[in-house]
Amino acid sequence: MRQLTEAEMADVGAALAAALRPGDVVALHGELGAGKTTLARAVLRALGHEGEVPSPSFAIVQPYDRLALPVTHADLYRVEDPGELEELGLDEALDGGVLLVEWPERAGEAAWPQALRLVLTPAPDGRRALTWEVPRSWEGRWPPPLPRP
Questions:
Q1: CB 128, CB 121: distance < 8 Å
Q2: What is the pLDDT of residues 140-149, one digit of tens each?
Q3: Where in the cell is the protein located (predicted)?
Q4: Is the CATH number 3.60.21.10 carried by domain 2-136?
Q5: In this predicted model, what pLDDT tens digit does every residue of 40-71 receive, in sequence order?
Q6: Which of 29, 55, 104, 107 is the most exposed place for a label (fewest CB within 10 A)?
Q7: Residue 36 near residue 26, CB atoms below 8 Å
Q8: Any idea where the domains of the chain sit in the sequence?
Q9: For residues 72-85, b (16+ Cβ closer than 10 Å) or e, as one string?
Q10: Counting Cβ atoms within 10 Å, is residue 7 exposed (0-12), middle (13-18) or buried (19+)?
Q11: Residues with Cβ < 8 Å from 38, sequence gap 6 or more?
Q12: How far is it, in rounded angstroms, from Cα 131 to Cα 145?
């Protein structure tokens, strides 16, 4: 577990971006306001996206396909039934790209077993606690060596 300031969240996003490979799924867990979108923005900026990175809460899926490694950013908060996911085409995003998923639990327990699961929890001092579950495909890539606070 790491306790992160907002600036350190950008460092974690950059480290995550450097570790990504085509076909990767990163599942971002945490309550509203935990920092999931902040971390996704940091990843996208580290991959070279210079424009706005809106939360995909309304659109559900926001593609960033003009990056060297295309990213699909999905927010499943409004998904009520895992059956709705087929219409979103999220699996197609993995063909040569990466999927960042907020609220992945809305996809059901069996969704994306190969995903790196990152859990963000707000701390009373404004920092975020970051914990993770690392699948076999991410061994040796996560956690990255991060500077100690």
A1: yes
A2: 999 987 655 5
A3: Cytoplasm
A4: no
A5: 999 999 999 998 887 777 789 999 999 999 99
A6: 55
A7: no
A8: 2-136
A9: bbbbbeebeeeeeb
A10: exposed
A11: 6, 9
A12: 14
**DSSP string spanning the chain?**
-EEE-HHHHHHHHHHHHHH--TT-EEEEE-STTSSHHHHHHHHHHHTT--S----TTTTSEEEETTSSS-EEEEE-TT--SGGGGGGGTTGGGGSSSEEEEESGGGG-TTS-TT-EEEEEEE-TTS-EEEEEE--GGGTTTSS------
Partners of 73 in the β-ladder = 62, 100
* Residue 50: count of CB within 10 angstroms of its CB: 7
Instruction: Report the distance separating Cα 5 and Cα 3, nearest Å.
Output: 7
| Residue type present at position 90 | L
Beta bridge partners of 75: 102
